[in-house]
Amino acid sequence: MRRRRPSLPFTTLGRMDRLRLAGERLMPGPNVPFPPMEAQLVEQLPTGDRWQYEPKWDGFRGVLENDDGELALWSRNGRPLLRYFPELRTLGPMLPPHSALDGEIVIELGGRLDFDAMQMRLHPAESRIRKLSAETPATYIAFDILLWRGEAVHERPLAERRAELERHAKGFRLSPISRDAAVAAHWLERLEVIGLDGVIAKRLDLPYRPGSRDAVSKVKHHKTADCVIVGY
Q1: What digits encode the pLDDT tens for the residues 30-64?
Q2: Is 11 exposed, middle or buried (0-12, 13-18, 19+ CB in 10 A)?
Q3: CA separation, residue 90 to residues 67, 85, 86, 111, 139 (Å)
Q4: What CATH number should be reported for the domain whose range is 35-219?
Q5: Which one is catalytic: 56, 202, 218, 223?
Q6: 195: which of 113, 126, 173, 224 fits an S-S bond (Cβ 3.0–4.6 Å)?
Q7: Any catalytic annotation for residue 56?
Q8: How far is CA 58 from the centre of its chain?
Q9: DSSP states of 185-232 as a string?
Q10: Band of pLDDT at residue 69, cut at 50, 70 and 90
């Protein structure tokens, strides 16, 4: 009698094998520019007509994609995140097939962004995730458009992409923007109290550059303290 080869327990399989068995896709669609653009840390905000400014959200980066009717949410490292934030599935009807947005997943508690609450979502138990999603629901904040109904919007300069984002992404929460460096400086000084992580500056004249830091700079709020060091 032919003996069947014993199967490995699900918990002992590698991450890629678990995703295959769960029926999840392993990577974004072939037309999605990936990995996401990164930002170069700088000491001062760049100024001039070529720059657009945005708050730097303190959450998880997320590329939201509808690949022929299947909604997916990818981390900056290509990990699927939708299972940890099931409440964001409600965004699916607003994103047509062959479309993708770039943005940030955040949780707001008591008027502040709460990164600790974000980390609590990375839990293996589905029941725990469902409970947290009801108690502390996450929000997806879109700040760029990559694809729309198959059109490679990411190949266009940021000034045009932002206009397309505002035109198409109805119902999504969009990150505020400004081209005024004084407004960006105000954000940097005042918005830390609600949990923002700094200010992002993006080149208006450049296309989306996957994995590159050439088109984006970031400035973080500096904290200072008077300290006395005593030795004996």
Answers
A1: 899 999 999 999 999 999 999 999 999 999 999 99
A2: exposed
A3: 16, 11, 8, 23, 11
A4: 3.30.470.30
A5: 56
A6: 113
A7: yes
A8: 10
A9: HHHHHHGGGGT---EEEEETTS---TT--TTEEEE-------------
A10: confident
